[in-house]
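Reviewers asked in the last cycle whether our approach scales beyond single polypeptides. To address this, we selected a multi-component target totalling 1013 residues and predicted its structure end to end. The input consisted of the following lines:
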Amino acid sequence: MSTTVILFTILSIGAIASGISLVTRRNPVSAAMSLIVHFFMLAGLYLTLQAQFVAIIQILVYAGAIMVLVIFVIMLLNLGKEENLTEKFSMRTTLALALGGLFVVQFLTAFLGKKTGMNALPEKSMSIGTTEGIGNVLFTQYLFPFEAISLLLLAAIVGSILLAKRKHEAS
Amino acid sequence: MEQDFLLSAPITFLSIMATILMVVDALIKKSSKITFTLSWLTLGITGVLAAWTLKHNGTAFNGMITVGSFGAFFDILFCMGALLTLIAARPYMQRENLEHDEFHSLILFAVSGMMIMAHANSLLILFIGIEIMSVCFYILSGYMRSSVRSVEASLKYFLLGAFATGFLVYGMALIYGATGSFDYNQIFMAAQHELRFPSLMMIGIGLLLIGLSFKAAAFPFHQWAPDVYQGAPTVVTAFMSTAGKIAAFSAFMPIVAIVSPADTEMKIQIILAIISAATMLVGNISALTQTNIKRMLAYSSVAHAGYLMMGLVAISAHHARGVSGILYYLSAYLFMQLGAFVIVSILERSGEKNLEIEDYAGLSKRHPVLAALMTIFMLSLAGIPPFAGFFGKYYLFTAAIESGYTWLTIIAVISSIISVYFYIGLIVKMYFTEPNESGESTQQLPGIASITLAVSAVAVVFLGLMPAGLLDVIKLLFGN
Amino acid sequence: MSSIIDLILGFLSEHIDALILLAKIGLIVNGLLMAAAYLVYFERKISAWAHNRIGPNRVGPLGLFQSFADVFKLYLKEDIIPTLADKKFHFIAPIISIGVAMAVYAVIPFGDSFMVGNKEIFLSVAPGINIGLLFVLSMSSVGVYGITLAGWSSNNKYSLLGGLRSAAQMISYELSMGLSLIGVLMLAGSLDLTTIVHAQSGGKWNIFLQPLAFIIFLVASFAETNRTPFDLPEAEPELVGGYHTEYSGMKFGLFFLAEYANMVTASAMMVLLFLGGWEMPGLYEALGLPAGSPLIAAVQFGVFVAKLVPILFFFIWVRWSLPRFRYDQLMNLGWKVMLPLALANIVITGIVMTILKHYGIM
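The resulting structure, written as structure tokens, was:
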């Protein structure tokens, strides 16, 4: 077994375990922390794929910024009581589980018995994951979507400020 | 690079102007007059730029977007819709005591999102475009922050829209997995050969159709439409239900076209036909029972999405009439639906008064002109000759028949007949009923919104009387 | 007997890389703890100087062993966990704080590599990582969990307020901190800290090329390390002790050490990114030592430390000179002043670089 396989095994078990813990924890802070652990595991998986930049951005943006805000909101709302989140095993849960199971089956039928022939990383992917690689592609080939996304974020910022700002005094 | 910017001039110009407008908004106090002028100028210039790029077919930015006929045609429709909305919005916003501040830049942002959708040549771009448009709509529908209904509409739209986006992205990811590309041309090429994971492709297409059906308000993902259309400020509803739907179909058409080669067992075609039939039946039958005019129009817009989907069925069956039929119908739909909603917005009084169909009783006595215009729009929506709606339906119906979907056409005709009941019902209410005693008299003049009404009415009549004009243009651009 | 020695030697030479790595980690962890302990001592001495007092002078000569006495005391103290606290997170929070503070040092280089025999030895734990700078930033952004969780798990409203404040403050200043560094990255063209230092060789220190970025980074560092004037998460007059109100014993000590370790990190980053790291124009040529010799590395480390100490002094000096911000002032400064300035800095840098490149100067 190569180091990559060992790392992959450990990281994916960690990712799945933290994912399960995320949905089963009753305490919202525990759930959020599981999600953070999950993000770290994902970052590790990206590293095994030679995508250093994506890995570190995963930690910097998701674990470091977005989840802090999530925790911030949980603390502000003070959802400390576990009763708030208890949910009985209902029709809805059953349905969700059934649909989820169906999805897994669908994927298995789609993938099983068909080799992708991609056991080793292709040569190209070695340079894609670096900061230079991503920067080059982002500002040449993907220039248009990059700029369009900035437009999207701008619109979202304007909107959130608009919806959250104080009402005008006179009107 | 210069070539790219030149050919994508409508999108780039509009986006830059929208950003500038926002800055102007922030820096200048009481800027509504300036931003209004700037925004209609921007939309006008963008329309002209789009008309200029009509004949320059090709791609730009490394094949990320298409330029030329298809996108430019939609650009013009979006600019027209936004322009008419802005003009109609001005008196409405003043009456409703709404702040103008960000309204103009949000409308422009939404238009740029729609244009990106129409120009998309890659699923990635399509997604970004849809998101820009949707985010602007979420905000615009909650623009009346003091109204509970408006906030509810915004929240409902946002939550369901985010859910639909999930389907959309998942579908895109699966299609990428099956074909190895986001690029439309490459997906089209890949779909022609045997795929390694055909079931992945089919699941992906299915999820993509769900997402897009939501944006187009097609059955069974139409539930949000009545609530959102009712809660949102009426001018915003006018914009969402016209330009938004046009944008959804501008995205729908290429998608259906590129995935159709993978559809060897005609599954997608059948699904589209069933959705289409269900959408028009559900839309029209639900509209029958509505008492609120905005809800009634909302359900009618759902029904129109059903008719438009007949064109998609034709496209999926490789029938060229589908494209021209949809393009013609969308042009007609823009004016008739917008006109109807603008009349509603003129008659509406703050606090969501005068929105019941009952309030339209005897309108012909109080506002003969508005009643007459409303009649034109209603007849056109019902598809009664000689108005634009009739020819639109005619082309779509023939396209469906020629693609071998006679049963779909029969359902379409039946549902059209159902729809006549409530469209004509409103006309009867306006002309043959005595005014409601309790209904307050409305003396407010439409102001500059009359420009919107005049343009829409003229367009509806003109397109109906001389459908050949627009069809010739479409034929010229798209080669039948 | 000799076979056993052979065996050991064989084992050693086989695993020499791993052993060197372990030695480096051990050195850095212990060195950092020592540095943090002595920073506490200096903080007390400088505060005494600012107050016209004498400061610690009983334990050892000049009170030099005071910090050890303090740590020893903390170990012996009772570890109190409030009854209603969330015990799991109450336990984890200080570990996160100190762990993250230490983890940053994996990528910080203290000098160029040197040769022993034909073995190249780097003066950092993980050399040549091409995302080194981002790693430092991401670790500092993860560090906020230690404080936030400490505040939340203590089940005390003062602690909670402190935790909330720190979350908001760190997120706000992280942005300007990261953006201020983009100018530096554009000049160096790399995220590798060693490359950034080398790009500043010959006196082209970034503090001269990027003065605005340096000021923004400096201010943001104060906020990120929760030092006065940004120490709102533990503002004593309002919040008792802030996030560590309910901590005692060595858990409290860990927070304390983490704060000082973070201060060393921030100072080290400033040295590496803006003050040319271990570069000193003319010095190495004057010494005339061959490249790659251990002596050069030692001098480089000395230069590095010599640059580090004044900044650390500055941190302490500011603490005893300036009053604390009010919360809204803090947010206004972060979002309305620092962020636009950092963005402007990127634009200006880009424009100037393009012009200079156009005329072939760069």
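DSSP finds 15 helices and two strands in chain C. We regard this as preliminary and will revisit it once experimental data from Aim 1 are available.
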